Amino acid sequence: MKNSSRRFLMSLVAGIALAPLAYAHHSGAMFDMQKELTLQGTVKDFQYTNPHSWLIVLVKDKSGAEVEWSFETEGPSTLLQAGIKRSSLQPGDKITVKTHPMKDGRPAGTWNIVTKSDGTTLTPRSAVPGAAAPLPPSAT
């Protein structure tokens, strides 16, 4: 009985100690949730992976140079529930992305809404109950 109590206590302490790390991993603290940008570009890659998928897009800056932007989103199971398949975005597709950018200015952000050139919209968090909606267009 003494060993099981000790194991339980050690497990409990380890769980409490590691909880902040797990929470921090899923934190959106790096994104400026008060700012939403709308960017147009060309899909370079769509990494349909766990635990987070990534959309890599080439966006022209003010000087006309291509800048590689990375947009973080949900894993495949959540994307599939929102109707987004691995084949939904292909290299070369022209898209518009609404994003909450990184606070530190790096070319990255959240994938809020993608609009394809045919008008199709892809909203990754539409299948997540209680997920925060993107900011309204007036906040951009």
> Helix/strand/pairing class, anyone?
alpha+beta
Largest sheet: 7 strands, mixed
Radius of gyration: 19 Å
* Strand order in space, largest sheet: 5-3-2-1-4-6-7
Task: Spell the H/E element sequence.
Answer: HEEEHEEEE
If you average the pLDDT, what whole number results? 83
Number of helices: 2
Overall CATH architecture of the domain at 37-131: Beta Barrel
Percent range of helical residues = 10-25%
Q: In CATH's first tier, which class of the domain at 37-131 applies?
A: Mainly Beta
Estimate the global geometry from the Cα principal axes: globular
Distance between the termini: 61 Å
How much strand content do the residues show?
A: 25-35%
The count of strands amounts to: 7
**Could you name the CATH topology of the domain at 37-131?**
OB fold (Dihydrolipoamide Acetyltransferase, E2P)
- Assembly classification: single chain
Low-confidence stretches: 17-25, 133-140
Structural commentary:
- There is one protein chain.
- This protein is α+β, with helices and mostly antiparallel strands and 140 residues long.
- The chain has helices spanning 2-25, 76-81; strands at residues 37-47, 53-60, 66-73, 94-99, 108-110, 113-116, 121-122.
- The chain has a domain at 37-131: OB fold (Dihydrolipoamide Acetyltransferase, E2P) (Beta Barrel), CATH 2.40.50.
- It contains two helices and seven strands; from the N terminus they run αβββαββββ.
- It has a seven-stranded mixed β-sheet with strand order 5-3-2-1-4-6-7, with no helix packed on it.
- A hairpin with a 5-residue loop joins β1 and β2 (53-60).
- The radius of gyration is 19 Å and the shape is globular.
- It starts with a helix and ends in an 18-residue tail after the last strand.
